[in-house]
From TrEMBL:
Family affiliation: Belongs to the glycosyl hydrolase 9 (cellulase E) family.
This protein's record includes keyword Hydrolase: yes
Residue window of the full protein shown: 242 to 815 of 827
Domain of life: Bacteria
Protein name: Endoglucanase
Species per Swiss-Prot/TrEMBL record: Streptomyces bohaiensis
Reaction catalyzed: Endohydrolysis of (1->4)-beta-D-glucosidic linkages in cellulose, lichenin and cereal beta-D-glucans
């Protein structure tokens, strides 16, 4: 298998902000600089210059040059760059290029809601579908859900929430960080200059709650929060206050399969400390954000969060079983110091209570930049940075000195990511191994850079975010846009059970704004193992529906995409 990488001239296939950096990469063996020519849609020469030879890109093995045309600030569509007789994909220059991506990336959540009909009026006929998992045959769940044998003898009603990914599982670990990042995106509009609250407000998204007086992004978050709260172990039980790690099918189902056709038994899996702390953190954040809109819910969320945190303290080492992977992912994590840090931060931000601050000060992660913001990015198993972002940005009872310390940690991390984006052949703010969901690692580094930009106003942080977007949208070793519907060579066969056009022409491709997991050098699925053997790390990707290890989509990868799209759209407005 030889990937079709198209033109050797690699650009952001969507385009560049009018006043933003504009760079590309060309694959060439030429030892010396080459001439690049920028042409407008009519083929007229608009600018030209010399490429800068880079050498060999270690992530792809490709010999490349880089080029940039920052000075060009003429808006329009259909621009191309030609180098050595080879022409790039077309792209636009403008300031409103990303407003569609902001809403599309957020629409991902409505599309993947469980327990509610997805209405044609909101998403179009192609994407409309009946509600899934409301105990209507052949579905068996998510009301009155039993535990797996030996886990508990009660049953829970846990409808709603979002399906995790290509599968129909609902997981509290990663469900928590996903909803937290959506809430943080909303919360950013409360503290960051230039963050457009209306773009996320009531009437901004294609959700059924439009017009209820609540910002639509909070309506979307609420759908998941209600599910998370329902996963808590009831009072009177031995593990009261903990959260069940996950709820999913007893056996893996095949593809394609619409949610309402899933006939597998749904089961609750054992509570875990990590899930419990996801609930504590997300619940605490929800409490402060929903307070103006629904004080009863805010109070309920806070009670659940406090109860969860105390339960986690009583049971600090209930790790999810790494072998519990039948019918759903394991999401096991045997280091929860980061989840403790994140939950303490959110509880402190909301309540101002000293005990949470003490816990933060005593955390082994306190003041350790690499632990709070790992170079490889925030992720479901590395959540501390979410707490640090909150403490650096939201007004809390922290002393100014402590807030300054946490801000310094964040900026130090951002400086590292920004340096990567300057030195990488393809400009991405990431320099680690390419693992499962690598695109989300890139995106989460971009979130930290975006926050750094918001806090300092320094253009170099915003520029690094934009270069990251260039990478995701086509300036990369495969000439691939990893976001469906964006760019001429976009991913459209991601692993998903009902967005499965590759398997059945009557079904749609993923909805626009769905980001693929991306290159994963570990080749953990049969398609990748078979077709990608020997691939260079950044090229271990295939747009094939069965390659779940390189080409799945999931709530916790689209969340940083939504954050970044929103940030970049605001940047264009500003
Ligand atoms: O995102 C998860 C990734 O970090 C893990 O390496 C991988 C294997 O355990 O699982 C990923 O999560 C998947 C989950 O287990 C099941 N639903 C789909 C998720 C995305 O691929």
């Amino acid at each position: 298998y030889e990937p079709d990488t198209g033109s050797p001239v690699r650009v952001n296939q969507v385009g560049y902000l009018t006043h933003g950096p504009k760079s590309g990469t060309v694959v060439t063996d030429a030892p010396k600089a080459l001439r690049w020519v920028l042409r407008d849609a009519d083929g007229r020469r608009a600018a030209s210059g010399k490429t800068a030879p880079f050498g060999t890109d270690p992530t792809s093995g490709q010999h490349v040059h880089r080029f940039s045309f920052d000075a060009v600030q003429r808006e329009g569509e259909g621009w191309t760059v030609t180098v050595d007789g080879e022409t790039s994909q077309p792209f636009a220059i403008g300031d409103t290029l990303y407003s569609g991506l902001r809403t599309d990336a957020l629409a991902y959540y409505y599309h993947n809601r469980s327990g509610i009909e997805i209405e044609a009026e909101l998403v179009g006929e192609e994407y409309a579908r009946p509600a899934g998992h409301l105990n209507v045959a052949p579905n068996r769940g998510d009301f009155d859900v039993p535990c797996r044998p030996g886990v508990c003898d009660y049953r829970l009603d846990a409808p709603g929430g979002w399906y995790d990914a290509g599968d129909h599982g609902k997981y509290v670990v990663n469900g928590g960080i996903s909803v937290a990042q959506l809430m943080s995106l909303y919360e950013r509009t409360l503290w960051a200059d230039g963050a457009d609250g209306e773009a996320l407000g009531d009437g901004s998204l294609r959700v059924p709650e439009q017009g209820n007086g609540v910002p639509d992004i909070l309506d979307e978050a609420r759908w998941q929060l209600d599910f998370l709260l329902a996963m808590q172990v009831p009072q009177g039980e031995e593990l009261a206050g903990m959260a069940h790690h996950k709820l999913h099918d007893a056996n893996w189902t095949g593809l394609p399969l619409l949610p309402h056709r899933d006939a597998e038994l749904r089961q609750l899996h054992a509570p875990s400390t990590a899930a419990t702390l996801n609930l504590a953190a997300a619940g605490a954040q929800a409490a402060r954000l929903f307070e103006p809109y629904d004080p009863d819910f805010a109070a309920e969320a806070l009670t659940s969060a406090v109860t969860a945190y105390e339960a986690a303290q009583r049971h600090p080492d209930h790790y999810a079983d790494p072998n519990d992977g039948q019918g759903g992912g394991a999401y096991s994590d045997d280091n929860v110091t980061d989840e403790f840090y994140w939950a303490a931060a959110e509880l402190f931000a909301t309540t101002g209570e000293e005990q949470y601050l003490e816990d933060l000060r005593n955390s082994p992660l306190h003041g350790d930049t690499d632990a709070v913001f790992p170079r490889g990015g925030l992720a479901w198993a590395a959540t501390a940075g979410l707490g640090a972002i909150t403490l650096a940005t939201v007004d809390t009872a922290l002393t100014p000195a402590e807030r300054a310390d946490i801000t310094a940690t964040l900026l130090e991390a951002a400086d590292g990511y920004a340096a990567d984006s300057v030195s990488e052949a393809y400009g991405l703010p990431f320099s680690q191994n390419y693992v499962w969901g690598s695109n989300s690692q890139v995106l989460n580094n971009m979130v930290v850079l975006g926050v750094a930009h918001d806090l300092t106003g320094e253009a170099r942080y915003g520029a690094a975010v934009l270069r990251g977007l260039d990478y995701l949208l086509g300036r990369n070793p495969l000439n691939q846009s990893y976001v469906t519907g964006y760019g001429e060579r976009d991913s459209r066969n991601q692993h998903h059970r009902h967005w499965a056009r590759q398997l059945n022409p009557a079904l749609p491709h993923p909805a626009p704004g769905s980001v693929a997991g991306g290159p994963n050098e570990e080749l953990q699925d049969p398609i990748a193992a078979d077709l990608l053997e020997g691939c260079a790390p950044a090229m271990c990707y295939i747009d094939h529906i069965e390659s779940y290890a390189t080409n799945e989509i999931t709530i916790n990868w689209n969340a940083p995409l939504a954050w970044v799209a929103s940030f970049v759209d605001d940047l264009g407005d500003g």
